[in-house]
Amino acid sequence: MSETTPTRPTLHFDSHGDSGPPVLLVMGFGMRGSVWKPQVDGLKDTHRVVTYDHRGIGESESPPGPWTMHDLASDALRVADAAGFDSFHIVGVSMGGMIAQHVALGWPERLRSLSLIATHAGGLRSALPTLRGLSFFLRANLAPPEQRVDALTELLYPAEFVARADPRQLKQRMAESVGQRATRETLKRQFRAILRHRTRSRLSQITTPTLIVQPRQDILIRPRESERLHRLIPGALLSRYDDSGHGLIFQDAKRLNAELARHFEQAERRRPRAQRAPRRAAS
Prior knowledge:
Blueprint: E1 2-4, E2 12-16, E3 22-26, H1 37-43, E4 48-52, H2 69-83, E5 88-93, H3 95-106, E6 111-117, H4 124-127, H5 131-142, H6 145-156, H7 159-164, H8 167-178, H9 184-195, E7 210-215, H10 224-232, E8 237-241, H11 248-251, H12 253-270
Parallel strand pairs: 3-4, 3-5, 5-6, 6-7, 7-8
Antiparallel strand pairs: 1-2, 2-4
Helix pairs in contact: 1-12, 2-3, 5-6
């Protein structure tokens, strides 16, 4: 079911599933919420899953800039409110993981669990990819459309995975990812928010049950950044995906979905019994 937030800037979001614990999926740089399709398909039968388009992406409004991570985190909360989520599990990938950190620090009472996939705690050194990753990142975002698919494929997936993947499935996935590309102004505003992202000194304050997912073949966000998050967030769990790149939400969807569901279930068991009754999404 597709809806928009009642508050401005209006954000487009999609709700999937009728019952189960609520889950908010927060996408990364320049991508629509629909890129979460592998997780939606894997979780919607047992969870109420919401995906959304960031401001300036897809059908969501694009307010004047500059934008900050606090703005983007507030957007995530507005989507959760519109979906009827009093509290929820939040999952963020890449830039979405940065946003999720700000939600966890600013509104900890709203979260049941936190999952951070292929992301970092901020700072220029953390934000810099490998030279190879930077080359593909620039081509994926600035090159003519006919060159973007190949560049994005190389950015997201190790060559070994591309060689053995079903060509039709991979082509469809890349078409979904490149699809309706964000404007350059939106990409600039998101990129500036990423450069100003800083949570390192505050991560010790997080008490939400946290899962950190580390794709060890990532050339966009260096794997060491997951190790750093693991050290800084008390009690966080670190899960290593030895053969995965930055696009592991597609590459290793089955394993990731099972791990997320298990993390949600463990967090649910920690909640006081009185808080476990599910709340139906607002109609």
